[in-house]
């Protein structure tokens, strides 16, 4: 991950699970020199974030103008509310946004055109698609710039998301496809771990031992991939001795046509993303 840069004042409106994960990365990196203001509807949720260094946490239940106050003072505004709530929030903050404030969407399925239609075509908008490993600083975040966002705007927002992982810049039409790989991808990995754990239990291991073996095998394999920078296929070949046990197991998995299974799975996810974008 690149060295953190000093970021200007940031507002996160709706610091739920994803907004909270981004906030964790920002605080841990020390990059949020300009300070971060976060809003949540409930007093309890706001209180959970109130003790973070450099963070001002606002409960909308106590401060109804919290969203507009935060947006007016920020150079970067992250929209972290549920997709259905985005239009109303944009209409609320539109009058107070400064012309060059960069508005960043965390909302799945809400297009840049939707933002521009409410905020105006000249407001810089960037659409983002982070994933849940942001909580531990290992996110993959897709970023798509709107027409009014400059290269400097994109660099600034990229630096923000690099505090909690890596960034891939894509055109907006690829954001939904990216979500089927990195956005949904952690669930695919967790499913594979579940199934390997069940296989271990089926071979007579206790649940605790089975989980330990399956989980740490995935964690260790990912760490090895990260440390070596090798192609996954090459690392697989190194484990797969000719005529050995692993070769026999891999043959069974390949006979199951995993390539087709993953293709169908990601196609299904992409179709659903398009349905959600269309409001169905």
Automatic annotation (TrEMBL):
It catalyses: L-proline + NADP(+) = (S)-1-pyrroline-5-carboxylate + NADPH + 2 H(+); L-proline + NAD(+) = (S)-1-pyrroline-5-carboxylate + NADH + 2 H(+). Residues 10-109 form the Pyrroline-5-carboxylate reductase catalytic N-terminal domain. PROSITE patterns: P5CR. Gene3D superfamilies: NAD(P)-binding Rossmann-like Domain (3.40.50.720), ProC C-terminal domain-like (1.10.3730.10). It is an enzyme of class 1 (oxidoreductase). NADP(+) binds at residues 13-18. Residues 172-276 form the Pyrroline-5-carboxylate reductase dimerisation domain. GO terms for biological process: L-proline biosynthetic process. It is found in: Cytoplasm. NADPH binds at residue 67. The keyword Cytoplasm applies. Its EC number is 1.5.1.2. Belongs to the pyrroline-5-carboxylate reductase family. This is Pyrroline-5-carboxylate reductase. It comes from Microbacterium imperiale. The lineage of its organism: Bacteria, Bacillati, Actinomycetota, Actinomycetes, Micrococcales. The gene is proC.
